[in-house]
Amino acid sequence: MDRRRMTAIGVLVAAAGTAAAVTLPSFAGENPTRRTAPVASDGVAPEVLDALSRDLSLTRDQAARRLKTERWASGTVTKLRGELGADYGGSWLGADGTTLNVAVADPAQAARVTAAGAVPKRVDRGVAELDAVKTRLDAAGGEATPDVAGWYVDVATNSVVVVAQPGAEAAGRRFAEASGVPAGAVRVRTADEAPRPLFDVRGGDAYFINNAGRCSVGFSVVGGFVTAGHCGRPGDRTAGANRVAQGTFAASSFPGDDWAVVEVNGQWTPQGVVNDFNGGTVPVNGSTEAPVGASVCRSGSTTGTRCGVIQAKNATVNYPEGTVTGLTRTNVCAEPGDSGGAWLSGDQAQGVTSGGSGDCTRGGVTFFQPVNEILQRNNLTLVTAGAQPSAPPAGGGATAPPESTAPVTPPAGDATDCTGQVSRTGRIAAGRAQVQPDGRFFRVSGGAQEGCVSAPAGARVVLELQRFTGTTFRTVARAGSADGLARLTAETPAGAYRYRVVGLAGAGEYTLAFSAR
Predict the structure, then answer these.
(1) Which positions carry the signal peptide feature in this UniProt record (predicted)?
(2) Catalytic residue selected from 159, 179, 216, 339
(3) What is the CA radius of gyration of the chain?
(4) In angstroms, rounded to a whole number, what is the distance separating the alpha carbons of residues 486 and 391?
(5) Active-site choice (131, 205, 258, 276)
């Protein structure tokens, strides 16, 4: 099955339940995050700029400009793909990362591409036709010999590439011919590649499977994390790098796909960051898919942070254990100990390490499973770093962001405690955050909402009311604590909401009470 059609752009949030909006408490899954790394002025962590500078031989300014261009290219490609329809032949950035090329099957569409700031490239086949050719190869994948390492759509050459071992070109051609695909749409190239899953690995923090094999955390999701499917099967138990019991594999797919979902226990809190293996972390602020040619960085415990560029999407790899489709091909190196780990383009999550060929001494090729497909297939919410609020002025108060026109005023009521329809407790500390109720969200039919937090003795907190906007949660009201309480009131439309309690100073148990009318 060609799973490229299933890949979504942006952050996917699972809104549990499809019933009409009701008053409290109709809960669905969600969880808090925090940022633990300094962020450059353009929103990209300095560690990412350092890694790009090192591995792509760029200055920090060149790396920052490249990332800015890539963000523009991502949005432009999304727009043009919708406008060009069947005439869209794919897109890729030039080797220097400054030129966006867009292939068109109809010459009349070239002017539209030029007007968008990209360079049109005339091709014979649209990307949908290339994907159809690859789908036929996928269907015949069981007939591929070990001499065939895999195949992928190469939009820059307007063809589907079959990768064969040196001296095995004939085997690659026989495989393509046996699948019945048009000869002109396929080309065979040789490469000394023997992809295999990178077992016994981590991408972010290490974890252990059944007290034996070791893999890596890919990205945090509400309730757990995603990783490589070859790392474990449903029911397998995990322990963290500290060997403390961590969670259980809830879902896994390998071969065919290479993804898995681990649900963690209450001792573990998913955070929207990736270990930079340089004493810090970098934030994850979304999952917008980067185009072919974009820079990408991988985090792994064996070789640390390594960067390169995306070479192709919708690639199929013929592992010894079976064929995996829908992967993204890169020129980033990896070694055993790096599997399952996180791939970032800037601050945007891209995927989890599947497998590869070569090593970080002589170079290699590595494939990752796109993260958006994992999120979509499993109805998961990516945990992102979000914005850490600054301390409010003394005396508290509340503000509303531009997307909310609701007036926000201090609520009337008891000045010494918090009451409401729903009450939750939690433990907070400086620099940490929790989403309530119980890491989830609730639905209301509109009207006034009131929230109040009774902070621990000597602690300062911020209380945020956030509304789901279709891609993420946005803060619509915020109040800082004064005299141990943080209160807010806001008039809000119908929708899905959550409260976020952020610690600014001190630590201890807090109580949140809230209601909606």
Answers:
(1) 1-28
(2) 339
(3) 24
(4) 12
(5) 258
Q: What is the pLDDT of residues 448-494, one digit of tens each?
A: 899 999 988 888 888 989 887 655 677 888 888 888 899 999 888 88
Alpha helices in 340-468 (DSSP H): 371-378
Report the C-alpha gap between 508 and 453 in whole angstroms: 13
**16 to 172, 180, 271, 366, 381: CA distances (angstroms):** 46, 43, 21, 35, 11
Paired with 225 in beta bridges are 220, 262
What pTM did the predictor assign?
A: 0.56
Percent of the chain with pLDDT over 90: 41
Q: Take residue 91 and report the two structure tokens written for it.
A: 């897109």
d(CA 310, CA 68): 16
Catalytic site includes residue 106? no
User: Is 339 a residue of the active site?
Assistant: yes
User: Hey, CA dihedral for 225, 282, 326, 125, is it positive or negative?
Assistant: positive
196 burial (CB, 10 Å; 0-12 / 13-18 / 19+) is: middle
Cα angle, residue 168 at apex, residues 179 and 161 outer, rounded to 5°: 50
The pLDDT, as a whole number, for residue 470 is 59
230 is catalytic: yes
Q: Is the peptide bond before 25 cis (omega within 30 degrees of 0)?
A: yes
- Report the C-alpha gap between 350 and 365 in whole angstroms: 16
Question: In the predicted model, what is the mean pLDDT of residues 74-81?
Answer: 93
Of the residues 230, 252, 338, 454, only one is catalytic, namely: 230
Sign of CA dihedral 58, 62, 63, 66: negative
